[in-house]
Each structure stands twice: as structure tokens, then as C-alpha cells.
Amino acid sequence: MTNDPLPRARTGAGRATALAFVVLLLCGLTLAVAYANKARCAGGPVDEYGRSEVFDIRKDRDVCYSDIQFLWQGREIDNHVFPYVDGAITDDGVLIGGAVEYPVLSGLLMWAGAIGVDNDADFLWHSALLLAPFALLTAWLLARMSGAAALLWATGPPLVFYAFHNWELPVVATSVAAVAVLTLPSRLSVRTRGIIAAVLLALGFCLKIYPGIFVLPLAIYVLTEGAPRGTRRLRELDVAGAAQTLLAAMATVAAVNLPFVLAGVEGWRASVTFQRLRQADITTNSIWYWGHQAIFGRDAETTQTWHDFVAIASPGLMAAAFALALWLGLRRWTPAAPFPWVGVSAAMLAGFLLFHKVHSPQYTLWIIPFLVLLEVPWSMVAAYLVADAAVGIGVFRYFWTMGQGEDYETLEGIVQFGVWLRSALLLALFFVFLRARLRGAIAAEPVGPPPRVLQPVA
């Protein structure tokens, strides 16, 4: 019998690889189910614009609605107009000329999914083929980092509900890849890996904005070289590395957006204006709409004064949540632990989701990887899935019932239950994330070259 750790290490690596392949396979099967779920609203006879006639009949009743299929019309996708260049937004907030409401890389994905198709069913299919690899990459990376917990992503209900609901899978992949760059074994320095991660997060920003908020905690992690507090003199913190991390993110965002700004600044700016003008109405599933109903009564109409208030309160509270997460994260940087940039990023995302004026159901895909990466109690994970299902299923049945003129009080109650339970969980998760350890294979963060341990100053 030998005590040589090398065979044991190889056995462990082999098991980890085998598990990752199993997770990848199961994720592929889940994606097939996810596509079949959305495809119930597509196919068959189409109208003169290439819209499946069955879409308007089934989308809410059978809970198979997707933004992908819906936006086949109304954003010039059906006319194969290249996005942004000739676009604009009208005085009443209508996007025209190829402008879309998302950042430029998502707009490119929307345009690419429509190449060679002339109806919404084929657009859904081509878009699914375009998006699926990002879900598989996410599954693989999560399995390599967190082991069997990755099954929550690969086989969980949210992937069935939302994989092909909108263009979320690429942005989730960029966030998970950024974490992987910093946590999976590597011979690269923390600074180099931080810069690579910053580029990935910046690409995520150009897809759906939210990964951009992770760049600041990433820069602090690089500043401290991923080392526990006290292993560096103050003057030896990696200020240059932190600055390069921030600059890499900003340069990437500029490089991606600049061509669109030069080609058609009005179309590029229209996406920002659209989101700024969007109001917290019944379609937003946020605390702002349902909070208004709770304060002023279920039949009370939201007023412009309320929307003006939300326009100030929502970003203000998000900024406060970000600052609090960073401050609490710095307090968790101790002689026994490095700065918890993953936990801080997760907390910032929880604050974003809680206070943003819009909370579309598919945003659940954003937070699921953090529930995998961090040691969140499984009871909280289960509760979050229940809340998500109450909103993600209930809201469409709610819309259907209202449209039919039937009694919708029960379904409205289900939606409100989901919204408020989810909100309470996001508030709790904000603090849980900041204290949670990383799961499984990455629990020993950081990895890579060990930090230099310096003698304390006398």
C-alpha cells in the first residue's frame, strides 16, 4: 500500500471529469425539454408576417410564451434589419428601424438567429441552437467548480422554463466563466486572471448589463492578490493590477459599443432610453408594482408621480445595496480568508434583483449559478424555486384568466405570493451570500501561485 497522493489526485480528477460529463449530458436533455416546452407555441399555420397563429392562443393559457417568439415582430427581426444602425425611439417610447431594448451583443444574437428564416417557429429553433452551447458551457464549468451541486443548473425547473424564453444564456455563461478563471487551477497570476475575468464580465455587460457590477469586487480581489488580510504591507497591494482590471473592462465595453455608436448613435441610444422610460407596471413582476397595490389598494392605478418616485428610489436603493455589499465584503477580508469577491458579487446581484423596477421571470437564471457556487442552505434554494414557479407559471395564467374575463383573484394571490416570497429570500440571500463558503472543488479559493507571505513590519 502506498501513501503517494498522486494516484489519489488522478482518481479524484477522473471522477470530477466523469461527473462533469454526466452534468453536461443531463443539461442537454433538459435543454431538449425546454425547447419542446416553448415550441408548443410555435409551428402550424402562420399569418402574413410569419407569426404562428397558435402563438396568441396558447402563449398564456399553456404557459409557453417566449420573448424570442414574441419579438419576431416589432423589432424588424422578421425583416432581417441589422440592429441599431438605422434605429430610433419615438416620443411615445416605441422602438423603430431595427432598434432593440437590449445591449448590442444581445441585439446581434437576435439578428443572427433570424438569418435564413421567415417565420417565428424557425426563429425560435435557430435561436435555441445558438443559445444552447452557452447553457452547456455553464453546466460544465459549474460541475468542474462545484461538483454535483451543478445539477441545480443542469436539471432544475428554471432551465426548462427560461432557457429559450429570452437571450439570457450567453450572459450567464460570461459570469460563470469569469468565476472559473479566478477559481479553477491555473499557473497564471491573480492579476492576469483578473484581467481575463474582467473582459468576460465586460462582454456580459454588453449582453445584459448585470455582470458589469461584478467588476468592482473583482478589482478589489486583484488588489489584495486573493490573499488573506495581513499578508501584504499596505504599499504592496497590487494597485496596478486592480487598475488594469478596471481598465480592461472599460476598454472591452468601449471596443464592443463604439462601432455601433459610430454607425448609428440614435439606434444605439434608443435601447438605453427604452429601459429608462419603462414603468413598473403589471408586466414587471417587481416589488414596485405590487408594493403600490399593497399601499394604495389592488384597484389603484399607478400614477406618474409614483413612476417618478420609482425612477429615483430604484437606482438609489440598488446603489446603496452595492455599497453595503462591498463594505461587508471588506469586513469579511480577514487574516484567515481572502476578500470574498464571489459572495460580494452574488449579494450585489441580489440587491439588483430586489430593487430593480423590472424583474422578468427569466432573471432567475442569473442567480442560479450563485446558488450552485456558494454554500446556500438547500432549504432556501427550494423556497426560491417555489417562489419562481409561482411567478413564472402563475403570471401567465393570471394574464390569460384576466383576458378571458374570468375570476382571477386566486391566480393574482399566487403571483403576489411568489413576488413577496422571492423578495424576502433575496433580502436574506444578500447577507447569506456574504458569509457563504464556496462549494465543493473551489472551497479552497484562491488557487494558482501562492501569495508571497511577508514578515510583519516591526
Topology:
Elements lengths: L4 H35 L13 H6 L8 H4 L17 E2 L5 E2 L7 H10 L6 H27 L4 H5 L1 H6 L6 H15 L6 H19 L6 H9 L15 H39 L9 H10 L7 H28 L9 H15 L8 H10 L4 H26 L5 H27 L23
Antiparallel strand pairs: 1-2
Number of helices: 17
Question: Taking Cα atoms only, what radius of gyration do you get, to the nearest Å?
Answer: 23 Å
Average pLDDT reading: 92
Structural class: mainly alpha
Unreliable segments (pLDDT under 50, ≥5 consecutive)? 443-458
Note the run of SSEs as H and E. Answer: HHHEEHHHHHHHHHHHHHH
Task: Name the strands of the widest sheet in spatial order.
Answer: 1-2
Global morphology: globular
Helical fraction: 55-70%
> What fraction of residues sit in β-strands?
under 5%
Major sheet size, sense and barrel closure: 2 strands, antiparallel
Number of β-strand runs = 2
Kindly report how far apart the N and C termini lie. Answer: 48 Å
Structure overview:
The chain has 458 residues and is an all-alpha fold. 64% of the residues lie in helices and 1% in strands. It is built from 17 helices and two strands. Strands 1-2 form a two-stranded antiparallel ribbon. The longest helix has 39 residues, at 239-277.
Quick structural summary:
By secondary structure, this protein is mostly helical. The chain has 17 helices and 2 strands.
